[in-house]
Amino acid sequence: MSKRLLVVSQYFYPEQFRINDICETWVSKGYDVTVLTGIPNYPKGNFYDGYGIRKKRNENYNGIEIIRIPIIPRKKSGFMMGLNYLSFVFSGILWGLFNKKQFDAVFIYEVSPMTQAIPAIKIAKRLNVPCYIYVMDLWPENFEIITGITSPFMIKPLEKMVDYIYKNCKKIFTASKSFKENIQQRGIPANKVFYWPQYAEEFYRPVDRKSSEIFQDEKKNIIFAGNIGVAQGLDILPEVGKFLKSENLNIRFNIVGDGRSKEKLISEITKEKLNEFFTFLDPVPASDIPYIFSAGDFSFVSLKKSEIFSMTIPAKLQSSMACGMPILLSADGEVQDIIKNSQAGFVSDSGDVKGLLENLKKIDRLSKKEIQEMGRNSKNYYEKNFEKKKLMSIMDDFLLRE
């Protein structure tokens, strides 16, 4: 009999998250996969066309049964985001009470919010099956950074919620080694917490065809692809642009994606008359990103300065390395070690404009051969440490042995 998995993830196809590929891979291995998710509205905050409270609530995607529970769209305010989080919890608990389906295990894909784990745990308890969680955002730390809320009246209940979640999960998987250490410091036994890094989908690979959207001239192209939000720390770019202009460097940043901070970033760059050093592109399907990368010279990976983000390995790192891209990094902590050990690019601390500028000077002087060598180092490191088949096999060992 196939393993019957209930995956609880507030985000799922057509939203672009790695859990889509994880579930497809499980189906290809013979698992029976059901996903409990919300109505797609990330990152813009509005329901996608064709989806709604009364539209496409049940769907089959590549053999995966998708059940969409009612939620309030996140919009663009902190208040609405809070309602979005709570609505998923409420709807998920209700669904669990009336659900008649049987499952062998519950798997939580935890990118913020951590609150989505509450209905998952209640469902697992009701069915008397093990519950697993894959942690990519630490709470309440991530909540504090994104919202700016630090009041003990809000944070202490979240601390208790997180402890409840960890204690009621049979196994906890983390996307970074630093996360593993942090969770163990909360009193969770070491034999319950496992480092399971993210991989990149198989379409992330070096390709010959270059995207026509990345202008080809004498400038070196830096590619940022992904969410444009507070966590990414892109607010340093206008200052960087001033330097590119004053030093007359042949470098252009290409920002591909969308998010809450995009309009403000464009406005500041336009105000400073720096448009010649920046190109903004609309989001593209994830499968098109390799062609964007192919037209670039470096992938820009950045995070806002904070203790929590110094423990984070952003998913775009694996995507970039799988495509053989050299990395320009503006982030702290564990991710710096990866770039240094792989010799795949240049690193500077989060928010360190001066350090980033020095690295841009180095990139401006690099030969094509030197860039290609860094790209090969990047790809080789990915294959040794983040290759999909190896990592999915490790997860199979956990799920099938229970």
TrEMBL record:
Database matches in SUPFAM superfamilies: UDP-Glycosyltransferase/glycogen phosphorylase (SSF53756)
Entry-linked Gene3D superfamilies: Glycogen Phosphorylase B
Domain Glycosyltransferase subfamily 4-like N-terminal: 18-194
The organism's place on the tree of life at top rank: Bacteria
Gene Ontology terms for molecular function: hexosyltransferase activity
Entry's transmembrane regions: 78-98
Keywords, ordered alphabetically: Membrane, Transferase, Transmembrane, Transmembrane helix
Domain Glycosyl transferase family residue range list: 214-379
Stated name of the protein: Glycosyltransferase WbuB
Organism: Enterococcus florum
